[in-house]
Amino acid sequence: MKLIEKTQIMDKDAMRRALTRIAHEIIERNNGVENLCFIGIRSRGVPLAERLTRKVKEIEGKDLPIGVVDITLHRDDLALSSGQPVVSHTDVSFPVSGKTVILVDDVLFTGRTTRAALDAIFELGRPASIQLAVLVDRGHRELPIRPDYVGKNVPTSLKEIVSVYVGEIDKEDKVIIQEIADEKL
Ligand SMILES: O=P(O)(O)OC[C@H]1O[C@H](OP(=O)(O)OP(=O)(O)O)[C@H](O)[C@@H]1O
Ligand SMILES: O=c1cc[nH]c(=O)[nH]1
After folding, report:
1. 127, 98 Cβ separation under 8 angstroms
2. Residue 41 Cβ < 6 Å to ligand 1
3. What's the complex ipTM?
4. Which InterPro entries does the protein's record reference (predicted)?
5. CATH no. for residue 51?
6. Radius of gyration (C-alpha) of the chain in whole angstroms
7. Which ligand is closest in space to the CA of residue 112?
8. Among 63, 83, 85, 118, which one is least packed by beta carbons within 10 Å?
């Protein structure tokens, strides 16, 4: 699939500010951090969840547990929607029952990855609630899923792809929109 880079929509500072705001929103909405835990969706949801827990620690002085769910997406076609995400691995070393889980991902699109992650969490136990934090919501939901915390809402067309780069994996922080150049949609 050939991609043409179109626009950069967030730089390192914009990402840092968005995550700082989300950390404050999480603390405010939950009246503190008692009972909270974080679960990142691999791959880029994991460093974002780690950054959020570091910010929460800076603000509230408490360490919160982080787990990981790995969802593999088997896409049926190149239109990017209609994929079939399945849980391939879960690494959550604390009990989720009774907790408020903050599920973290980089991009929210159809909602299918989130749904698979919710299934994976309920396999582990029964949380008190689950809240969803994403760096970018690009729209085009195919399921009744909405984020509780959003870094940036980005209206997109189905010919576009939003790519999040994080220093921990990609050596730099940025969010770009690319366009699919050569595929039938
Ligand atoms: O709402 P959805 O339609 O499910 O799309 C969102 C998911 O797609 C991306 O993952 P991708 O499968 O591209 O893999 P990646 O994490 O390796 O980028 C992104 O990280 C989200 O997890
Ligand atoms: O544009 C998209 C769609 C799904 N996942 C992404 O990371 N970007």
Report:
1. yes
2. yes
3. 0.95
4. PRTase-like, PRTase_dom, PyrR, PyrR_bifunctional
5. 3.40.50.2020
6. 16
7. 1
8. 63
